[in-house]
Specification:
By secondary structure, the protein is an alpha/beta fold. It has 20 helices and 13 strands. The radius of gyration is 28 Å and the shape is globular.
Length: about 575
């Protein structure tokens, strides 16, 4: 049930009766802390029509057909409409049932995309979990979601590895070996010109399909992807090997990309390189920035591969929408790629191309999060630390739990805490990584939400109640009940905002408000000690809250325990 959409349509109909249709964009927002919804748009409409905002708002109240939805509507401030939903209308909301999109789209979600031949580190976390949350939400709404893990499995680093192993006679069977060899080959590449030249030649051989080079490369990829998959499983991320669509996938199409750009008259040779110059991209001095698609030595770049990927995703996958989750520092790159694609006609299905950038994870010093030794924190180490800290916290709270249950809970709580701490921040912002804040049962954290869920389960366990035997709907009576019902009702409106705007933190904020409202309800409205209709009503609200918390956390990729 999309309450915001329903309210917006009714208000716009009232505008039409005043012959003001289209003169204002009606925006409706939920305010669960106030237990109502607020609409604006009156002030801008009044300005265009030369009317007093409050007078116009009063007129709209007379024309507003909303009695079946709202118990009261009042004018507030300079022209807002505060709408209190009727308890009977709130009762019709089916808790945690996710509304299906009116029109199903094919949505390609490009996320995670680690560079192979080395372990995943904290820099890969945000792309992986933000992208996965979006894939889950869109899929739950009925869209056909195609996950694409555009891994860095091509290029100079593999030429360096092949050449180093050929020279040294060493063999690589583990990722630790591979990473060590990569560091050594990088050092030699920077210091030895002959080695560098032979490494570049190995890249050419790789691109040309040389059997021996391809065999060595495939071995590297298998080792690296095995590591990535173990991380995905531990993070409860839905990426699988079938979603891997690395840079190498598009190698065969890169010459055709260049040919088609040439046929469109878009290529210009600059310092021996093939470039596309678009006038909308300029330096501060007014010089046009080139999009280099082929180097002077014939090699291709990220831009070429991304253009080929757009052709594949729109021409073969028939995408309606393509979402890219990468570091904000790649913003210019994607603006240029999207613009070149438009000029060249590569977007064959006229898909929406959307770069959804994110900020960096920072340490306490405000700099990129690193170990005390100054090295990049590996994801495995970060998750180990999270589970260790969660286990310590669980033992302090409940020392009677057996070791196996502590291990299970530490995984659920520790991994959930790391993911939620990231997802609860506006993705466009940098954020400070704080262990004490994220693994806490207080504040806007995963443990707080998980605890709220287990508290609800304990009510049904203690009372010996089968939640599934309860009525599906109930009409809230007391004010804490009504406030909780309003929070529950906002679930689908929140999901629509997340899927449209690509901001998982909106879902996190919603769940936190819901859990907070439940805590107040729990404290002010006795459940098991009540009797009759009151007891049943409150049990229904508690069950609806639990279902919504569990469904919302699942969309974030976070599990819930039955007890803590």
């Amino acid at each position: 049930m999309h309450i915001k959409e329903t309210l917006s349509q009714r208000i716009e109909a009232a505008f039409a009766q005043q012959e003001l249709a289209g003169s204002a964009m009606v925006q409706v927002s939920s305010r669960p802390e106030h237990g109502d919804y607020q609409a604006n748009g009156v002030m801008s409409a009044a300005k265009r029509a030369g009317k007093n905002p409050r007078d116009l708002a009063g007129y709209l109240l007379e024309k507003l057909s909303i009695a079946d939805i709202a118990s009261s509507v009042e004018v507030a401030g300079p022209g807002f409409l505060n709408i209190r939903l009727a308890p009977a209308y709130l009762a019709t909301v089916n808790a945690a049932q996710i509304d299906q999109a009116a029109t199903s789209q094919t949505v390609v979600v490009d996320y995670s995309a680690p560079n192979l031949a080395k372990e995943m580190h904290v820099g890969h976390l945000r792309s992986t979990i933000i992208g996965d949350c979006m894939a889950r939400v869109l899929e739950a709404q009925g869209h056909q979601v195609i996950r694409q893990n555009h891994v860095g499995d091509w290029g100079t680093q593999f030429g360096m590895l092949v050449t180093y192993l050929n020279d040294s006679g060493a063999s690589s069977q583990t990722l630790a070996d591979l990473e060590s060899f990569y560091r050594q080959s990088k050092t030699q590449f920077d210091q030895d010109q002959d080695f560098a030249n032979r490494s570049r030649q190995a890249v050419v051989a790789l691109q040309a399909g040389d059997p021996d080079t391809r065999e060595a490369w495939a071995h590297f990829i298998d080792i690296s992807m095995s590591h990535c998959q173990s991380i995905y499983q531990r993070l409860n991320v839905t990426l699988t090997p079938e979603h891997t669509q690395g840079e190498s996938t598009y190698n065969h199409d890169l010459p055709a990309v260049i040919e088609d750009l040439e046929a469109q008259g878009l290529l210009v040779v600059s310092d021996g390189a093939q470039c596309v110059f678009l006038s909308q991209f300029k330096t501060k001095k007014g010089e046009i920035l080139p999009v280099i698609v082929q180097k002077s030595d014939g090699g291709y770049l990220y831009a070429t591969t991304d253009l080929a990927a757009i052709r594949y995703r729109t021409g073969t996958l028939n995408a309606d929408r393509i979402l890219y989750f990468t570091d904000a520092r790649q913003a210019l790159h994607f603006k240029q790629i999207f613009a070149v694609s438009a000029e060249a006609g590569f977007n064959r299905s006229s898909a929406q191309l959307e770069h959804m950038p994110f900020g960096a994870m920072l340490g306490a010093d405000g700099k990129p999060f690193k170990t005390r030794a100054g090295s990049v924190v590996k994801l495995t180490e970060l998750l180990d630390e999270a589970e260790l800290r969660a286990a310590q916290l669980i033992k302090e709270k409940n020392s009677q739990l057996d070791p196996q249950e502590i291990q299970t809970l530490s995984r659920i709580i520790g991994i959930g805490a790391v993911k939620y701490a990231d997802l609860s921040k506006n993705r466009t912002s940098d954020y400070l990584f704080d262990w004490d804040q994220m693994i806490s049962f207080e504040g806007n954290t995963a443990p707080y939400l998980q605890y709220a869920y287990t508290r609800i389960q304990s009510v049904f366990t203690k009372g010996g109640i089968d939640a599934e035997a309860l009525p599906k709907q109930t009409v809230a009576v007391d004010e804490p009940e009504r406030l909780l019902a309003v929070s529950i009702a906002a679930f689908n409106d929140t999901l629509r905002a997340v899927s449209t705007e690509g901001y998982p933190h909106l879902l996190c904020n919603y769940l936190y408000v819901l859990a907070t409202q439940f805590t107040r309800f729990y404290e002010l409205c006795p459940i098991l000690s009540s009797a009759g209709e009151i007891r049943e009503r409150r049990l229904v609200l508690a069950h609806q809250t639990g279902c919504t918390l569990k469904a919302g956390l699942a969309l974030l990729g976070i599990d819930v325990p039955n007890r803590m």
